[in-house]
Amino acid sequence: MTTSQLSAQAEPATQSARGANYIVNDFSIQIATVNGSGSQSANSVLLRSIFRMGIPVSGKNLFPSNIAGLPTWYTIRVSKDGWVARKAHIDVLIAMNAETAREDVLSLSAGGAVIYDESLKLNELRSDLAYYAVPFDQLATTTGADAKIRKLVKNMVYVGVAAKLLSIDMEAVEQTVRKQFAKKVKAAELNLNAVRVGYDYVASTLTKHDPYVVERMNATAGKIIIDGNSAAALGAMFAGVTVVPWYPITPSSSVVENLIDLMKKHRVDANGKASFAIVQAEDELAAIGMVLGAGWAGARSMTASSGPGISLMAEFAGLGYYAEIPGVIFDVQRTGPSTGLPTRTSQADLTFVAGISHGDTKHVILLPGTVRECYEFGLEAFDLAEQLQTPIFVLSDLDLGMNNWMSEPFEYPEKPMNRGKVLNAEQLEKLGGFARYKDVDGDGIPYRTLPGTDHPLAAYFTRGSGHNEKALYTERPEDYENNMLRLARKFDTAKKLVPKPILQGTGKEKVGIIAFGTTHWAVIESRMQLERENQLATDYLRIRAFPFTQEIHDFVAKHDRVYVVEQNRDAQMLSLLKIDLDPVQLVKLHSILHFNGLPIDARFVTAAIATHQGAGK
Amino acid sequence: MTTSQLSAQAEPATQSARGANYIVNDFSIQIATVNGSGSQSANSVLLRSIFRMGIPVSGKNLFPSNIAGLPTWYTIRVSKDGWVARKAHIDVLIAMNAETAREDVLSLSAGGAVIYDESLKLNELRSDLAYYAVPFDQLATTTGADAKIRKLVKNMVYVGVAAKLLSIDMEAVEQTVRKQFAKKVKAAELNLNAVRVGYDYVASTLTKHDPYVVERMNATAGKIIIDGNSAAALGAMFAGVTVVPWYPITPSSSVVENLIDLMKKHRVDANGKASFAIVQAEDELAAIGMVLGAGWAGARSMTASSGPGISLMAEFAGLGYYAEIPGVIFDVQRTGPSTGLPTRTSQADLTFVAGISHGDTKHVILLPGTVRECYEFGLEAFDLAEQLQTPIFVLSDLDLGMNNWMSEPFEYPEKPMNRGKVLNAEQLEKLGGFARYKDVDGDGIPYRTLPGTDHPLAAYFTRGSGHNEKALYTERPEDYENNMLRLARKFDTAKKLVPKPILQGTGKEKVGIIAFGTTHWAVIESRMQLERENQLATDYLRIRAFPFTQEIHDFVAKHDRVYVVEQNRDAQMLSLLKIDLDPVQLVKLHSILHFNGLPIDARFVTAAIATHQGAGK
Amino acid sequence: MSTTPVTPKAIKTNRIGLQILDYRGGKTTLCAGCGHNSISERITEAFYEMGIQPERVMKMSGIGCSSKSPAYFMSRSFSFNSVHGRMPSVATGALLANKTMRSIGVSGDGDTASIGMGQFVHLMRRNVPMIYIIEDNGVYGLTKGQFSATADMGSKLKTGVVNDLPAIDICALAIQMGATFVGRSFSGDKKQLSTMLKAALSHQGTVLLDVISPCVTFNDHEGSTKSYKYMQEHEEAVSEVGFVPYFDDIAVEYDASTTVDVQLHDGSHMRLRKIHDDYNPTDRANAVKMLMDVHEKGEVLTGVFYVDTQKPDFTTLLNMVDEPLATLPQERTRPGREVLTAIMEAHL
Amino acid sequence: MSTTPVTPKAIKTNRIGLQILDYRGGKTTLCAGCGHNSISERITEAFYEMGIQPERVMKMSGIGCSSKSPAYFMSRSFSFNSVHGRMPSVATGALLANKTMRSIGVSGDGDTASIGMGQFVHLMRRNVPMIYIIEDNGVYGLTKGQFSATADMGSKLKTGVVNDLPAIDICALAIQMGATFVGRSFSGDKKQLSTMLKAALSHQGTVLLDVISPCVTFNDHEGSTKSYKYMQEHEEAVSEVGFVPYFDDIAVEYDASTTVDVQLHDGSHMRLRKIHDDYNPTDRANAVKMLMDVHEKGEVLTGVFYVDTQKPDFTTLLNMVDEPLATLPQERTRPGREVLTAIMEAHL
Ligand SMILES: Cc1ncc(C[n+]2csc(CCOP(=O)(O)OP(=O)(O)O)c2C)c(N)n1
Ligand SMILES: Cc1ncc(C[n+]2csc(CCOP(=O)(O)OP(=O)(O)O)c2C)c(N)n1
Ligand code: SF4
Ligand code: SF4
Ligand SMILES: [Mg+2]
Ligand SMILES: [Mg+2]
Fold first, then answer.
1. A329 and A445, same structural domain?
2. Per-residue b or e along D181-190, where b marks 16 or more CB atoms closer than 10 Å to that residue's CB
3. d(CA A98, CA A116)
4. What is the spatial distance between Cα A348 and Cα D153, in angstroms, rounded to a whole number?
C-alpha cells in the first residue's frame, strides 16, 4: 500500500458550539510563502496565539532545500481533539506566494477559505471557496514601517487578517508577540501594530463567509510547545554531556545549535569556564571519531547528524561496538542522499543503523516518538551508553526534530547518572588488577578503567575485537568466538535496559498496530477513525527501542493481525521484526508504508487498514 | 549452535590400496612456520607436486596480521574424494616453529606424524604419534647454499623430507619446482638440490612408521590451481574493465595486484598505450568516488576492498543506487574491524552490504562460491552493473580469495558485453530527446546518455533521488514516490538477471540445506557424512546472488526443514531470507553458524545438523 | 556538429556558431546577490567566448549552495552533483573514463577545506586536468552560516561568534600540493575572473581558482572578512592578468621587464603584469611564501600566483590510449581467446 | 603516587622513582630491523628521562605497522589503536575529555598522508596539544609495500615500479596548517630523535615529528629514498638540537649569534644551533620555503623547523574548567531543577 494509491478523504465536519454554520477548533491553516521571507515568526505568533487560547495546535514547516526564494508552506492544525499529525487537507489558505498560489488554491478542501494578496486574483479559480483579498503591500506601508523591513511587516499583517477572520483573540496575539519579542520592545510594538492593521482591515472591509473559527478552550494549560531538536538538546544538557563534536547537516544542526545556546547559559561556571567542549568537526568521520575518543577517555559524548553523515560513520560505529566505547549519536532522519529530499522527513535509516558497519555488528537504538521522549531519551541514551559501553543511536526525524509540538512539560531527572562499570584506583588495588573484557557479572558487560587512573594495573590496550579477555592481542579462534558471544550477551542485556514499548487499547482486540517515532501521531488518530468509521477497534503498540523487548513479541502473539506502519519504502521495522520474532507469528504482520517525504497522516493509515481489513475478511 | 559447542570428530580411516596399514590420499599436512620465512614457495611445491600426481588437494594459509616473525600455518588437504574444505584435524605436522610446536603437536590426530627439527625435542609430548626428527640446519648447510639464503633452503629440505615419507614422486616434485622457477634456472637447481638433501636424509636415516601416503591417481587432469582473487582479476580483465581505483587492504589487495600484472601484459597496445587506468586512491572513499565518476562517464569501473573499506563507501554506495550509476565492488570479506582479525575469513558483510547506506537502499550482490565463479561473476558483474545501472557488489572472502583451489579451467566469454541502455546521438535525434529516469520498458531501468554524446539534447543533470523523470530538480511528493517505486521495480528486474542458485540432491528430500560462498565446500562434504553416518539424505541449494530468485522460495517451500549454514554470528543470510520469504515458510529455517575466523569445516556442519535432527525428531 | 541549429545572421554567435543562450543554465535558486551567481555568469561567458562545445564539458560538484550552481550554467553540458566533499574523486574517475572531455568542478569552502580536504589534496597532487573552482564565502551557506576552514581568525558571524582558528589558505596549499595553475579572484571582479577563467580553459592540468564569493545571507556583514565591503577594501592584485587566445591572431605588445608571458597548452598566451614585488609566478616556494606573508597582514591577494606548464597531468602519466576508455570497443578491451588459454595453461 | 613500587637502591630510577622497565611495552611483532622499533625505544627513553608518570599518558594510533607500535612501549599507559587514518579525531576527543593527560600519537605515512590527510590537516589547524609522530617509510608496510603519498617522485619499489607523483612534505604542510612544533628526524639518529622527543614533551600544542623510519622489508633497497643508506647519504640537519629540561638546574652556555634559545611551556629550554643558512625556526613562511627549496634538491632536512610557543592550544581556546571533563561530578554537569523549570516556562 503506497501513498499515491490512496487519496485522503475529507474529515466529516464536526458540529460547532456556535451552531451549524461554524467549524470550531477543527481545521488547518496553510501559509504559503517563499523561504527567506521572514514569515517564520509570524507563523509562530499565529500558532502560539491559538495555543494560548487553550486550543490544541501543531505546526509543520514544509521548506525547500535552499536558503531563500523557493516555495515554503507552513501548516497549522487546530484540533480540539488534540490530533497533531499532519492533516492532508487544508481548510484555510494564506496565499503569499504567487508562484504556487494557483496550485495551492486548487488543492484546498471544498468550502475552504483563501486569504490572498489582491494582486493575485485567485478568486476566479474555484467557486466553492471563500475568498478574502487583502492589499498587503498597501497595508504594510500603512504601518509606517521602514521600507527595509516592510517585507517582514507584511507577514504580521496576515497574522492580523487571520486573527480577525478566525476569531483569534487579539489579547492572545498581543501576549504572544510580547513574549516572542521579550527583549525587543520596539520590535514588539512594530509587529503588534502590523497585526492590528491587518485585523482592522478585515473588521472594516471584509465579511466572513467561511465556517472556520476558533473558540477558547482549556486544553493546553500547563503544556509547552517545543521542537524535538530543542528537546533533545535539553536532554543532553541535563544528562551531563561534556564533549560534543558535530558537523552541520539539516535537519540535525539545531540539536547542537540549541545545545550551544543552552550550555553557554547553564554550563559555564562563575569564572566563565565551560564544563563542556562543543567542537565543529571537519566532517562526520571526525565527529564520531572524537565521540569515541572522548567516550573512551570517560566523557559523556555525543554528536548529531542525518543520513549522509551517519553513512560516513559506518566504520567508526563498528569500532565503537567492538571496542566497547560509549557514545550517543542522534540521527535526525531525512529523505534520500544529499541530493535527495534533504528537507523532507523519513524513517528510512532504521535497518541501516541497526547493523551499521561491516561484520557482525548490532546497535542499540532509541526511537523517540514525542518531543518529550526526545528529551527523556536524550537523557537516557547517555546512561545506556555508559552502562552498556557501546554507541547508542537515537533515531528522530525531521518532522519530530524541526517542527513544533505540544507537550506536557519535561520532568527533572530524579535518578542520578549511571556511569557504568568503571573501576578506580582503589578498586583496582583491592582486586589486584582487572581483565578488560571479562564477563564478571554474566551480563556480557565487562569493567573498564579510564585513562589517567592512577594505578600501575589500570592501563589496557584498546583495539577492535582482536583481543582476549585481558585485552591482549590474540588471533586464537576460541578467544575470538567467546568474545563475540559475550558481545551478543551484552546485546541481550540491552533488552532489559531500553525503554519498553507503550500499549494503547484494551489489549484484547484482534487487530493490532505497531508503529514508532512520529508515525505514532497518525496512528492514534487513525485508530479513532477506524473505530468510528469502520467499527474496527484496534490495539496499538509503539516501539521505542531496538533490540526488541518481550512485550513486542507478546503483542504480536496476542493479535490475529498486526499492521506495521512506517515511513519508508522497504518496510524496515517489519524487516527487523521478521528477523527477531518467532517465525510462526510472522504471517500476521502487514506493512503500511508512506515514503513521499511528507509526514504520514491518519487518513492514509485508515484507508490502508480499512482496505486491507476489507480484503482480508 | 556455535563453533566451540562442537568439537570435530576424527574421520573414520579409509581402507588403503596398499593394505590396511596405510591411509592413502586422504589426510592433511600442516606446516607450522613463522611468516616472512619464505616457506610459501616450499608449501606451494608440496601442494602442486601432489596435485601433479593426480590427487585432489587444497591449500589453506593461516597467517597472522603482521609482516614477519609470527606463527603461520599452511595446511594441505589431500583427498582422493576431492573434498577441499578445511579439515579441522591434522594428520601430518611439519613443525618448524619452536613457539607453537608444543601446541601444534598436542592438537594432532591420534596416529599422526610429526616431522620436526631435532632441536625441538617434541617426541616426548605424546606417545601416540610417529616422530621424525630432522637436523634441518645441518642439512641446509649440506646443500652448500649461501648463509644468506639458508633459511629459505631449509624450507625446501622439509619438502624433500615430506616427499620421501609420504611417497610423493620426486619426478612430480622436480617438474613442479622447474615450473615454479621457470625463469630462474639456477634457483630451480638450488631448490631441487635442497629437496634431494631432505629426501636422501629420510631414505638413509629414518624409517616410516605412520600410515599416511600418496599414490598416483587421475583426478586432476586438466584442472588448474588458482586463488579466487587471481580468478576475479581475470574475470575483470576479460570483462573489459577500464578504470580501477583501489586502496590496499588485506585480503582484497591481490585482486588488483593481479589485475595490474595481467593488464600490463594483455591490455597494452603496440604503442605501449594502456586501454585502462589503474589508480591507487588515497582511501576507499576516493576509490568508490572514482568508480562512480567513471561509471557515470561510461567506463567499466571497479574497486576491491574489505570490511573497513566497504564501511567507508556507505554514503557513495547509496548515491550510486539513487543516481543509478554502474560500478563493481569486490568485497573480499575478513573478520571484524581493522583491529579485529584482519587475516581471518568471514561471511559477515552480507546484511550490511545488502542495504549499505542510509535510506531505502538495496544492492545487488553476487556470491561466488568457487574460484571459477570468482572469474565468471567477475565478468558477469560488469554486464549486470551496466544493464541495471547500479553498483554491483561481489562478496568473496579471504578463504576463497587468498587460498589455492582446484578448478576446471575457465571458459572464454562467448556472449558479447552488454553495455546496457545507452542512447547515442543518432538515437537521440530520432527520439527527439529522452527522459533520463523514465521507465520506458516497464522493467524499471531507464535510458542514459554518456558525457560527450554529441547532441544538444544529450545532457542531463545527475543528482541523487531529488528529481523527476526528466532529471529535473523537484521536491514533489508524487515524483519522489514514483521514482522510489521505479527503483524497487528495477530491483525486481535484477532477480531475473542474477545467477540462479544451484541445486544438489534429488530435490525430493525432506531436509534441505542452504549455503553460499565458501561454506559450500564444507556443506557438500557434510552431506556425504550425513548420508553415510546418519542416514540423512539432504538436498542442497547454493545461493549465488541477492536479490533472491524464485528457485530459493521454491526450495524452502518444498522442504520440511532447511538448514542455513553460514560463517557469521548473526545469521545474516537467514535474516535476509526471513525478510523476503513467504512468512509461512520461515518456521522451517534453522541456523548453523561458524564465526571464529577459521574456514568452516564439514564435521562442524555435520555435527550441528545431526544434533538438531536428533533433537527435532 | 550537424546538430547545431542554424543561426540567423543577426544573432551574435561564437567561434563555433553557438549563441550565449546555448551556454545558459537553469534559473538559479540561490539568494539574490549571492556571489556564486556572478561566478556562474563568468563561467558561462568564458566557455562561450572560448567557443567550447557544451557537450564536451563535464560539470562536477559536491554539496552546498556553491555545489548547486552547475545547475545554473550550461545546461547542455553533463553534470554530476555528487556528495559532500568528494567531488575530486568523482571528477577524477570521470576523466579517467573520458580524458577527452573538459571538466569544471565547482565546490565551496566547506565542501573543499573541511570535509573535502583529503580528496582535494590528492587531486592537486595528481594534477588532474580540470578547473576546480572554490566559491569561497568563509561559511557553510546551505546549512545556514557556520564557519568553514577558510574563515579568517577573528572574523565574526552575524551572531557575534568569533572564529578563533586560523584560516586555511587554499591557494598556498594547492601550490604546495602540486596544482599547476593557481589563482584567486573575487566574484565581484568581472574582468579579472573572466580572464582567469579563459586562461584556465587553455591549461592542461589542475587549475585551482579560489574565488571569494560573498554569502549575502550569512556572511556579508561588518566583521566578516569575506564580505563585499571587506573585499573592496582589502583586495590586492598580485598581477594584472591578460589573455590572448590561440585563435586570436593579434600580436599584443608587452613589456618583458614587467610582464611574464606564459604560453599555455592550447597555444594561448597569458600575460601576467607584476604588481606585487615578490611576484614570480613560476617559483612554487616563493609563491607559497608570498601568500603566507601577505595573509598575515590581512590583505587578500588576487591574481594568478603560480603556473607550471611543464608538469604532465594525471591522464598523461597514465599513458592511456588516445580514445576515451569509456567507449573503447570490445575488441580493444577483451583480450583474445588465446590469452585465456595461455593463462589457464600456466595454472595447470 | 601511592601505588608506585618502592625501588631498592641499586636499581636506576628516574625523577619519579620509576625504572626504565616501567616504561617498556610488549614484545614487538614488527620485522627485525624495522625503523619503527628504534622509535619505540627512543619514546620509551624520553618518557623515562623526563620522568613522566606512565598512567598520565594516552598512546593513540591509526592502522599500519607504525600504528601497532604503541603496543611495544609503555604498557602502563592507556592506548587506543583506532581505525585507518582517523587517529587525529580520536586523539582530539580523548583530550577534550581529559585535557590533563599527555597524548602521543603514532601514525604512518599512509595512515597520515593518504587516507588520513583530512583529519591530519584539521588537527594541525587546531593545534591540539599532543605529540604526533609519523613513522615515515614511504610505503604501506602492513599491506606489503605500496607507495604512500610521502614517497619521492622517481623512487622505486623492489618490483621496479617507479613513483611518478610528487611527495607530500608533511612538515611543510604541518607548518602551513598551524602546527606549533614541527621537525623531522631519522629513526637511526638516536641522539637527535631523543632530544627532539624530550623537547616535544615540554611543548603545549601540536608537535609534529616526521621520523624517517626505513621499512627493511619493502623499502630499504637501492632506488628507495627512504632507505637507511639513502638517509645516511642525504640527511642534512638544519640545526643541532639541544635540550635543557626544566628540572636540570645547570645553566648551559650558548652562543646567541648562532643559537636560538626557545623557552618551552614547562620551563625547559630548547637550543637550536643553526646549520642551514636560511634557518629561522620562528618564521613560518620561511620555514615552509626552506623545506620546499631543499626538497627539490633531493636532500632530506632534519631538525626542528618551526616552533611557536605563543599560540594557544586547542584545549585552551575552548576555555574549559581545569579538571578533566570526563570525571566532573554530576553536580557540575547537570544544571539544577530550577533551570529546567525556567526553560519549561519559557516554552509555555
Ligand atoms: C556528509 C554530509 N554532511 C553534511 C552535509 C550538510 N551540508 C550541506 S552543504 C554543507 C556545507 C556547504 O558549505 P560550502 O561548501 O562552503 O558551500 P556554500 O553553501 O557556502 O556555498 C553541509 C555541511 C551533507 N550534505 N553531507
Ligand atoms: C579503511 C582501511 N583501509 C585499508 C586498510 C588496510 N591497511 C592497513 S595498514 C595500511 C597502510 C599502512 O601504511 P602506513 O600508515 O604507512 O604504515 P606502515 O605499515 O608503513 O608503518 C592499510 C592500507 C585498513 N586497515 N583500513
Ligand atoms: S545562503 Fe549564502 S551562499 Fe547560499 S545562496 Fe544564499 S548567499 Fe549564496
Ligand atoms: S613491513 Fe616494514 S614497516 Fe612493517 S614491520 Fe616490517 S619493516 Fe617495519
Ligand atoms: Mg561556503
Ligand atoms: Mg608507511
1. no
2. bbbbbbbbbe
3. 9
4. 47
Clarify whether residues A307 and A197 are in a common domain.
no
The alpha carbons of chain C give a radius of gyration, in whole angstroms, of 21
Closest residue of chain C to A309, computed from CA coordinates: C84
Put simply, the chain A residues between 291 and 330 with a CB less than 8 A from any chain C CB are 308
Contact C63 A68 (CB under 8 A): no
C339 touches chain D (CB under 8 A): no
- On whether both A552 and A429 belong to a single domain, the answer is no
CB contact A286 to B (< 8 Å): no
Residue C3 lies in a domain: no
A175's enclosing H/E stretch is helix A170-180
Q: DSSP E strands: which ranges in chain C?
A: 57-61, 78-81, 102-108, 130-136, 139-140, 146-147, 181-186, 206-212, 235-237, 239-244, 259-263, 269-274, 300-307
Task: Identify whether residues B133 and B70 lie together within a single domain.
Answer: yes
Tell me the whole-structure pTM to 2 decimals.
0.97
C31 lines ligand 3 (CB under 6 A): yes
User: B415 in a domain, yes or no?
Assistant: no
Which site among C142, C218, C219 would you substitute to test the A interface, given the most A Cβ atoms closer than 10 Å to its Cβ?
C142
pLDDT band for position C278 (cuts 50, 70, 90): confident
Given the C-alpha cell 496512528, which residue does it identify?
A523
pLDDT in tens, B175-193: 999 999 988 899 999 999 9
Give residue C242's domain range: 20-317
Distance, first Cα to last Cα, chain B: 17
Strand order in the sheet with A224-227: A130-134, A113-117, A92-95, A26-34, A71-79, A57-62, A404-407, A224-227
The CA–CA distances, whole Å, from A201 to A96, A120, A143, A174, B510 equal: 17, 18, 12, 17, 83
How many angstroms separate the alpha carbon of residue D66 from the centre of ligand 2?
9
Residue D139 CB–ligand 4 contact under 6 Å: no
Q: Is residue D169 part of a domain?
A: yes
Burial of A553 (C-beta count, 10 Å sphere; 0-12/13-18/19+): middle
CATH for D135: 3.40.50.970
Residue A12: predicted pLDDT: 42
Ligand 3 pocket, C215 CB below 6 A?
A: yes
Is B282 within 8 Å of D149 when comparing Cβ atoms?
A: yes
pLDDT at position A1 over 80: no
- Other beta carbons within 10 angstroms of residue B610's beta carbon come to 17
Q: Which residues of D touch A293 (CB under 8 A)?
A: 60, 80, 82, 89-97
What are B287's three cell numbers? Answer: 576509490
pLDDT digits (tens, 9 = 90+) for D235-286: 999 999 999 999 987 777 888 889 999 999 999 999 999 998 889 999 999 9
Whether the Cβ atoms of residue B256 and residue B233 lie closer than 8 Å to each other: yes
CB-nearest to B481 from A2, A357, A361 is A2
Report which bound ligand comes closest to the CA of A336.
1
Same domain, B40 and B157: yes
* Residues of chain D falling short of pLDDT 50: 1-2
Q: Which domain holds residue A230?
A: 226-407
A219, A239, A270: which is the final residue of a domain?
A219
What phi and psi, each to the nearest 5 degrees, are found at residue D137? -120, 5
Distance A66 CA to ligand 3 centre (A): 8
Q: Does A503 touch chain D (CB under 8 A)?
A: no
Neighbour tally for A204: CB within 10 Å: 8
* Domains in chain A, number: 4
Q: Tell me: do B489 and B533 sit in the same domain.
A: no
- Total domains in chain D come to 1
Nearest to B48, CA basis, from B401, B372, B404: B404
Average pLDDT on B149-154 reads 89
Chains that touch C (3 or more CB pairs under 8 A): A, B, D
Q: What is the CATH number of the domain that holds B573?
A: 3.40.50.920
User: Alpha-carbon distance A249 to A253, whole Å?
Assistant: 5
